[in-house]
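Sorry to interrupt, but I need a hand with the structure work. I would like you to pick a protein and set down its sequence and fold. Please put the record directly below this note.
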Amino acid sequence: MDCEGYCQYKSNPEGCTVYSLRKDCFSKKQKVMTHRMWEKYKDIARKNKLMATRKKLYKVRGSTIERSFADAKGIYGYRYARFRGMKSVQMQAYLTTACQSMKKIALHLTKKGLVAGYFYKVYDFIWFSFTKIKKDYRLLGIPKGFPTICNLSSAFSGNT
């Protein structure tokens, strides 16, 4: 394995001289095959993709995983970063993911008849809080970036 992550396999030039179909196999003195170090894992993934159970899961993917990404991009603002800096964008991602998870839990519980709207109220409150602070952070005196817990309390009390 070389420093760039490639595995090189070289043929033995002395052993190939006796081989009668050598000209069909390769034209130079020595043949070198190069593979990435994770090529075997890609082969395993390709084999798994062709299994019957994997094909069924792949058909469902569009309505589950891809739907979640589409919601994040379209509804929750993943199309553009609202803040600047790694920590601020990471906090936006955490809050958005938490909101998506709460929505999923609320939908699941309401389908089972275990709760009637309580989680929706919590979800709406958190999402409203996030969007209100995002829009009014300059008016509230909150520094640029994701609001902290201290800033959340001042946002709803009207203090700056």
